Amino acid sequence: MSNSQSHNWGLEQIVAELRASREELHRTRHPRGIRELPSRDAICGIVTGLRAALFPTHYGAPDLTDESVDYYVGTTLESTLRLLAEQIRRALRFLPEHADATNDELKTKAFAIARDFGAQLPQIRALLVSDIQAAYAGDPAAQHITEILLCYPGVLAVMHHRLAHALHRLGVPLLARFINEIAHSATGIDIHPGAQIGPSFFIDHGTGVVIGETAIIGERVRLYQAVTLGAKSFPADGDGALVKGNARHPVVEDDVVIYAGATILGRVTIGRGSVIGGNVWLTHSVPPGSSVSQGKIREGDRRDEAKS
Prior knowledge:
Distance between the termini: 90 Å
Number of helices: 11
InterPro entries: Hexapep, LbH_SAT, Ser_AcTrfase_N_sf, Serine_acetyltransferase, Trimer_LpxA-like_sf
EC number: 2.3.1.30
Family: Belongs to the transferase hexapeptide repeat family.
Protein name: serine O-acetyltransferase
GO molecular function: serine O-acetyltransferase activity
C-alpha cells in the first residue's frame, strides 16, 4: 500500500461537512459575520506588560536601577498601550453602537479609550497597593510584600479584575471579560469585570471564589476560598430569553468577613462589620454587625465584643 493510500483521511468530505456545520447547521459566528477577533495571546501579553509597568521591580526586568526604571516603565507602557488599542478596535466591532463605524473611526475610538485607560493606571495601582496591604495585614502566614505579589492567587485575580473593571467602565466589555477569564484559568477565582470592589480587598486562598456581574463590595472586605456571591434567580422576558443587566448579586458593605464555602445569593445586603461563617447558605439581608453561622443570626455580636 502506498503512502498516499495509507494516509487517505477523507479530507474533502470532512472539510465539506465542517463547512456545512459552520455556515448552515450550527453557526457560532457573530450575526454580522465578524471574522477579526481579539487575540487571547495578545491580551495575555498586554496584561503582562501592564503588570510590569505597575510593579516593575516584581514583574519587570531583573536589572532595573533607579536611573533606568522610569525609562523601562515608559517604553513598556508605550508598546503595551499600542497593542491594547488594536485589541480594543477589534472588540468594539461587537458592540451594536459601532456596527456601522468605519475602520478609521474605530481606530480613533480605540486610541481614545486606551489613552483614558492609561491615565487611570496610577489610581489602579493605588487600589492594588491597598489590596496587597490588606493581604499582608490579614494573613499571619504572609512574610513580606514580595511574597504576596509573586505567590498569592487572590492578589493576581484582583489585579486582573482592577484592570478589567476599568476597561468594562470604558465600554469594552469583551476585552474586560478576556482579562478576567485569563485570571480565572490561572487561579480558579471567577470575578466578573462588572463587579464593583472597594479598596483593601483580600481573597485568602481563593480557589472556587465566584463574584457575579452586579455584585458591590465595600472597603476592607475579606473572602475565603469557595465563597459565592451569586444570583438567586434569572428573570426572563416574554419570549423566554434571560433579562440581561438586572441587579441580581449581593451588596457587601465595609469591613465584612465571609468564611470558606459561604454562598450568598440574590440582591441582598450584608451589613457593615458582619461575619458570615463557613458553609452558610444565605438568601436574605442581614443588618450591620451580624454574625451568621449555619442558619443562626446573632445581631450586634461584633459591636458587643468591641465594647467589652
